[in-house]
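Q: what sequence does this backbone want?
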């Protein structure tokens, strides 16, 4: 299973993650939560809300800015906003998992959203999976987040554009049982 209902594998599975881009004023941490134990593992962390400062007073255009070259909307890039933009995680066979995005605004908690709809307030969809299990091993999946399902933004002001935090998932399978494989080395891997 690898979708908005949850993540679960029949065998221990190592998956690579790569931060692609973010838009918005929140400073976020992306990670994995084990739904059976409640243990959270942060994987990709924004050290600031954007590469360059922006204003929160500009009205949202309520559009998906992922492929836009505009220089506004708190754009965050790999290497700047997220210095450590590659990571891996081992999913243990039989355990139930979800992804999470935990955000702050001006150093204050701004909420947490999950890739599993059932775990979000109002069972809202806060993450879009562009692909599934087949694509996970064949080029990867793009996981796109909308962070406005939080305690700071009223429902009528939510933009629901799924460009707030974008992660590449999978695309390369590493075998932890290969003696020549360095499972802990992520600096040269790609999703």
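A:
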């Amino acid at each position: 299973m690898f979708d908005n209902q949850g993540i679960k594998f029949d065998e221990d599975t190592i998956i690579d993650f790569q931060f692609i881009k973010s838009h918005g004023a929140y400073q976020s941490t992306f990670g994995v939560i084990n739904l059976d134990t409640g243990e959270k593992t942060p994987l990709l962390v924004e050290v600031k809300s954007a590469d360059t400062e922006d204003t929160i007073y500009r009205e949202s255009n309520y559009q998906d800015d992922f492929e836009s070259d505009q220089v506004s909307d708190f754009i965050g890039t790999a290497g700047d906003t997220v210095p450590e933009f590659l990571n891996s995680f081992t999913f243990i066979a039989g355990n139930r998992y979800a992804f999470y995005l935990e955000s702050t605004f001006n150093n204050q908690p701004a909420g947490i959203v999950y890739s599993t709809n059932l775990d979000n307030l109002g069972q809202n969809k806060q993450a879009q999976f562009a692909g599934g299990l087949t694509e996970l091993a064949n080029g990867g999946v793009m996981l796109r987040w909308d962070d406005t399902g939080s305690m700071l933004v009223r429902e009528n002001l939510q933009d629901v554009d799924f460009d707030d935090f974008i992660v590449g998932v999978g695309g390369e399978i590493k075998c932890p049982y290969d003696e020549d494989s360095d499972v802990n080395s992520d600096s040269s891997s790609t999703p």
